[in-house]
Specification:
Oligomer: single chain
CATH superfamily of the largest domain: EF-hand
Structural class: alpha+beta
Order of helices and strands: HEEHHEHHEHEHHEHHHEEHEEEEH
Length: 336
Amino acid sequence: MMNSSYVGLAVYLSISLHVHAQAPEEVGGLEVATILEMLGAKQEGGVSAGQRRIYQKHFGFGDHNGDGLHSAEEFIEKGSYLSPQARRGIFTASDADQDGTVTQAEYVLNRIVTDEAKALMQALDADDDGLVSREEFDEGAKADLPVKEQREATFRAFDSDENGLLRTPEYLRVWGGWARAGRKPAEARLRETALDALWAKVSRSVKKGDFAGYSATCHPDGVLVSGTKATSYPLSKALAGWQQGFEETKAGKMKASVAFRFSQRLGDATTAHETGIFLYTSQATGSEPNNAFIHFEALLLKNGEGEWKVMMEYQKSAATQEAWEDLLLPGSPGTR
């Protein structure tokens, strides 16, 4: 149970969360992104679609004119919760590109980063007094950061006023900068995380022989383009042709899997164009696995329910294993 001192700090956690200063690339010989991961940070990858929708709903409460942006007037001057000072801190922290407005994606990402960091603070605050001492940090982070010199360097980086104690806004100011260092803008990060979830669903559906699950990832008016056959046709027609393979996989008559890697990921809040290679592996009972590396592009749309659907799949040409190995997995640092 948090005491009142900690609650007070949690309420004002964003007052000083100015994340626009240049973050160091390394602290204690570790990249700052690695430190956050070692401390348990998953950032946007650790938040469910349901939680993102809650954050989006909260954003809507402050978007009084419905233009998809928070202006300083809307959020700070007309806001009805916390104090104007606290609202200004949250606004400044959220406005990652410093253009004077906060998009829904910027707001949601700031909430994700902030709430995750708060949870870490609570875990380290052994005596629940609203402060993390040097000793508490050293003991609490020992399992995640096993090298003492790295724990000490991390604590020093968080301890901006050098008093040996971490207050929540102080800690979060540094955390927020590290969480954004070298990363893509908020909109791209949230979009790619959602798309990674879609491609993961495609992979699970193929492996399980879940035809309905796979079909649900496709837009009802989607199109399949075949470069090798020099033609295009409705995705619904392609699905009908693939259905038997799904049924045989589900019945255990064959094994199948598909994985994706990307060379380019473009888009905005409701559209996306993904370019890369997929690896489809099939294996009939008693036979050797057959691997097919395919260059592909996909055009995706987000529907009114916030779900991404494949509108166009362009299977361009055969790829090589070498080309596959040159690409990065979804969600890996190079895709950020």
